[in-house]
Design a protein that fits this description.
Blueprint: H1 9-17, H2 21-43, H3 46-62, H4 73-130, H5 133-143, H6 149-156, H7 160-185
Helix pairs in contact: 1-2, 2-3, 2-4, 3-4, 4-7, 5-7, 6-7
Length: 186
């Protein structure tokens, strides 16, 4: 077996271009720790740093036949790790930017919805206040106090049919008024 540890980088590159796995393994052993250290310092994430370095070596092997290294192998790999780190950091930046824009969008939307809810609530209160006194009273007992028609009839000393009539009138009035409001929102 040949001891590639004594071979210069240029010879290892030439052998790797010819698909020599052992030459590639020597390049990997020679530079992996150094590239990993650089990537770890910049990314502050050992898993990402390892992935970056692994991708560099995978790419180096995959593109071995088209390689044209005009500098030293050390400089070539240092530049490769630099560009991969920039890609990773750019990806993180874009993800954060997207999350921030989505959060802002959600917050903006919820604020708008809250304002529309307050407007709707105000219109609802005004419409209820415009109902005839007895109709308004029956509606509030039904909706606010959660009383049944039978309980309202007993408390107000009126028939259940009258309670039903007041509720029907209140709901019809509210539906007409709120439909106009909802059409304006669209």
């Amino acid at each position: 077996m040949i001891d590639f540890r004594t071979y210069p980088d240029a010879d290892l590159i030439a052998l790797m271009i010819g698909s020599d796995h052992d030459a590639f393994t020597e390049i990997y052993k020679r530079y992996w720790k150094r590239l990993f250290h650089i990537a770890s310092l910049k990314l502050n994430n050992p898993e990402e740093a390892e992935e970056v370095v692994q991708n560099i070596f995978v790419s180096l092997w995959d593109r071995r036949e088209q390689l044209n290294i005009s500098t030293s192998l050390s400089a070539y790999l240092a530049i490769s790790v630099k560009y991969r780190i920039i890609k990773v950091l750019d990806k993180h930046y874009n993800q954060q930017k997207y999350v921030k824009s989505m959060t802002t969008s959600i917050l903006d939307d919820s604020t708008q919805q809250w304002l529309e809810f307050l407007d709707l609530k105000e219109i609802l209160e005004k419409t209820i206040a415009e109902l005839p006194e007895k109709c308004q009273l029956v509606f509030r007992m039904s909706r606010d106090k959660h009383m049944s028609q039978k309980e309202i009839a007993a408390e107000l000393n009126i028939s259940e049919k009258t309670v039903e009539s007041h509720l029907g009138k209140a709901i019809k009035t509210l539906r007409n008024k709120l439909n106009r409001f909802l059409i304006l929102l669209l």
